[in-house]
Amino acid sequence: MLWIPNPIPTKLPLSNVNGAQISGYLWTLAMNKQSVHDPTKTYASTGAFPVSFTINTNQNCPAVFHDTVLVNPYPTISSIAVADVCQGSPSSFVQNSSVTPVNGSVANAYQWNFGGGNTSTQANPSFTFANAGTHTVNLTVSTNYGCSTSSSGQVIVNPNPLFQACRWGDVCQVETAVPLQQPLLYRLPTAR
Fold first, then answer.
1. Does residue 91 contact residue 129 with C-beta atoms inside 8 Å?
2. Are strands 22-29 and 32-34 parallel, antiparallel or unpaired?
3. Number of C-alpha atoms within 13 angstroms, CB side, residue 135?
4. How far apart are CA 88 and CA 192, in angstroms?
5. For residue 186, how many C-alpha atoms fall within 13 Å in the half-sphere facing its CB?
């Protein structure tokens, strides 16, 4: 996590000393001291870290500001589970995501993309694909602090089987039955 503070002012708003100029400043970011105008700090771990900012003026009057930077975790998506289905049947998606509960972090937003402009914000949605084939789905999980992670998975939608049907003529006992017309190809109706 990279933390970048807002740029510091070039003049201090001191009400009791007119014209005071900044003569120096020092950022202390998790034991790292920087005397630069716009410091940055990359945090390798999560947690609460102290930050201090010291300003000196040309009148040798320092001011110190203290704050805390909360470094929050990204969620983890360990799996996206979905069973293969027949065309016309809904696919039920089950995501397995987690977030380390640092600073009160929780996974609170889910964004599924099924393709073709079809989306869902449910944690574990169902969706019916119109066409048979292998479909890629994308999931983004976000935390209450705006940290997000994405993953993708695939679902196989099998086509409905074809069958042949024809009309048969009635016969008497021990006669051979024969079709009255050429077989026709039918696709079974989609499940509902």
1. yes
2. antiparallel
3. 29
4. 7
5. 10
Query: CA–CA distance from 14 to each of 19, 21, 26, 122, 127 (Å)?
Result: 8, 10, 19, 52, 61
Residues counted in the chain: 192
pLDDT of residue 3: 43
Distance, CA of 64 to CA of 88 (rounded, Å): 66
What distance, in Å, lies between the first and last C-alpha atoms of the chain? 47
| Calculated CA dihedral for residues 143, 147, 149, 150, nearest 10 degrees | 90
The full DSSP string for 31-48 is TEEE-SSS--EE-SS-EE
Work out the angle at residue 121's Cα, subtended by the Cα atoms of residues 115 and 125, and round it to the nearest 5 degrees: 75
The answer to whether 160 and 88 are in contact (CB under 8 A) is yes
pLDDT tens figures, 110-165: 999 999 999 999 999 999 999 999 999 999 999 999 999 999 999 999 998 776 66
